[in-house]
Request: fold
Amino acid sequence: MNSLDLDHYSQKIIASKTPQDLELLRIKLLGKNGLINQLFKQIKSLPLEEKMKRGQELNSAKKKLGELVEKQKKQIKIKKGKFQETPELLYALPKIGHLHPITTTAGEIDSFFKSLGFSAYEGPEIETDEYCFRRLNVPPNHPARDMQDTIYIKEPETLLRTQASSIETRLLEKETPPFKVAFPARVYRNEKVNKSNHFIFHHYQAVAVDKDINLKDLIGTLQALAEKIYGPKVVTRYRCKYYPEVEPGLGLDIRCFACQGKGCPLCKGAGWIEMGGAGIIHPKVMAMANIDPKKWRGFAFGLGLDRWAMAKYGISDIRTLLGGNLAYKPNQP
Amino acid sequence: MKIIYSELKKLLPGLLDKKPEQLTNDLALIGHFVDGVEKTNSETIISLEIRQNRGDCLGYWGIAKELAVLYDLKLKEPKVSIPSITSPIILPIIIKSPSQITRVMAVKISALKNRPTPDWLKNFLAQHDIRSINTLVDLTNYIMILWGMPNHAFDAQKSTDQLIWETNQDRFKTFTTLDGTKIQLKKTTLQISNSKQVLSIAGIIGGRNSGVELETKEAIVEMATYNPERVRRDSQQLKITTEASARLEKQLDPNLIHQAFKHLIHLILKYCQGEVTSKIYDYYPKPAKPVAIEFNPQKPTLFSGVKIEPEFSQRTLRKLGCQINSKSKSSWQVIPPSQRADLELEEDLIEEVIRFFGYQKIPTDQPISAKILPDITPKIIHLTEAAQNALANLGYDEIRSWPLIKKSHFIKADFLPQEAQAIYTQNNVNSHYPVLRASILSSLKSQYRQYLKLKIPQKQFFEIGKIFWKINNNYRECWSLGIFDQSAQNLSKKIKRFYDKLNLVNHKIPPVQKIGRARAVEINLEQLAKEIAKIPKVVLSNPPQLINKATAAKELTSQIISLDANLVFPYRREPKEIISEYQAKFSPDILWQLVLLDVYQEKNSYKYTLRAFYYHCSLKEAKKNHQRVFKTKSKKA
Reply:
């Protein structure tokens, strides 16, 4: 073999149907002992001028064939489900897709509430002061607004919702009791972003309005939820707590995981970690939504989702949840 | 609010047999969350998070009253005795802003012998994180902590007697506080001044120009309550928060001033000697009027779901200081005490009864009835759930990113109207992210950039979230879906399959956008919801398996490292078989993925080039593992 039929081999490359065929052809032409290298060996004995001319031709052919092989690699249709179509890879195990930890954590809570006959709900993220505060019994200058540093779109009326309870006010206004609703929601607070604080995070809110709702219903539901998430051995504490939108109000604490209640830096010596707030919907909140508080009673509670998701997925930095450093191993469910 | 246990016992001697642990737990149960307990050799100091509407509990006296109700104990009020006041002098005090001031008491004390603070008082204040100044000043702070009532002492020789409570109205520009901070006054600032200068910001902080020093011989001492909103606004506008403002921006009981003020005078005379040289000034034009609340004693049972006897309600409300007039079995008229300004409605009284009855006595094993009510879930929620599962089943990872983005990253979704404009936030402290995204693609691009930095292979992801825009100051938002894929061909094919899963046959694929060498699309989910008659249920085929947190989701703190290895076999092998075999040799804590790059046929053998991706490790660790598994020298990819 002392010449190269470039057109012939170019056609053969273009005609390759599988990566394996193409690879064999590449080895035959461009491999260590391939045709091009053999031809290079043959020209060694030629006179200098002719050797240079043939050398240039061979180099040019080598380059062209190499480019054609690369191009054809991309063109070859790889078998469905077996080969990935990323150009760098010849084969990878099929990639598994994943849901975000917030989605899966909220999904678990959703399924719990679905089993109790709850619907889901949603509402706007750009809210008005009325639905985010006033209808929740938080008038202007109420101290409770301190805890909820607000990001304004147009002060003082238009803002980014600071709590999922703003969806509750829309729900109470729009729907006719009785109803039971539970939903996750993205909320915003005007806080500097760092390892443990974020200006965007997630609440999980549940609302039930019926004729005879009471604290026993609420505490029983919270307990069942805590046991679903943390297991039957979870130690909880229900205590009186103030929130302007509920009366009576209560707080849910869980015995500190780190010290089992003995007191440690995580729980600041208290032995308990606050998990959320709840209560019987305030009669003023009901009345503002045109629901007669003498006829209907409801409970509402809100929990922070991010900490639950972080604890569950072993994530230490809250920025990971929304910031781009979260990635998923492609072959693990 | 910090409470030193031994000091609390002075007001409640009956606490002697209560262990601090029990006390803190009981306080939490009745609504005063203990957010820390500090134990020194001789003291237990409890940090309490006081409820927003319980200004009365911002002093030892208020907390002691709560515990007296809970444990049925008697309160021991501090012994106070003041010599009879014979001075005919009336302090020249003028109240020019009566709507902002509910009560003021003041008196002048002369011939003072102010001195360095005694150790007991110094220690008490130190344990409450308050710096000791001198005996007189420290006594004012002691009374504030004990009774929860802020007060202030002026050096009478500097302040020249006259005290005017007024709003600034631009009369004075600046004011220097006791600690030397110069502040710009506002027009609406409520202040205490004389005719020449501002002496104090009412309810917040005193001024250097009239501060009490060791040499002070005459002082005017005042204690006042204000419109809490005024104090709160001044504190916010002037950016000053003090122990006094933290209390006075809540509703305090003007009636309590009488007791607390007399105690203050008693202590000043005891520790600084001196004599009272003016009449006690008392401005209290509208004494707090008790408000009667109709109360049904059956309601605590109805609200709690457990039987609470009317006798228990009656006993509890009386111990709280309420007056009860029983009109009938089902209707009482309850008049709360003046310090409980938070009790306005029947529900407030119900909470009082239940919290002393004990939330812990309510059963925890009876969740709400599972009775079926009409499903009011909006269609868009069913769609987002189906879309999330469908895309995960097609191999895409879900991301969630910031809806607030950098100005330079702003783009508009194709399907938005031409006149749609960006929405900017006014006060976001994270000022680099001032604008709300109007296309989910801006989020996908950010994620792509981040994944490139982290060197993540096989970038295939999606996000479902809101996008925002405005038209003529009408704010709009809608659910949007963005799908990103490294391969254009893969993306188009998978979108077709995605639509199939949603029962959208032959649906038009949205315009494919270029992001570097990759591709992405954006889909208006709310429009899609309108086009689907019934959203199908899509089940996630690979649900996460959380076993000891060994989840696929990883918090990456460093780049992924890729190393290549060549393996030679005398016969041809299936790629899947090789990858599975070698993958099993790695710890899942270090290997991200293993892929086949190349197959090379030699005369009597096959050479396979594998690429291993390592995470959460250094290059050295990666190489060590690489060599262990492949028995070959690693080559950085």
Observations:
- The CA atoms of residues 97 and 555 of chain B lie 58 Å apart.
- The mean pLDDT of chain B is 93.
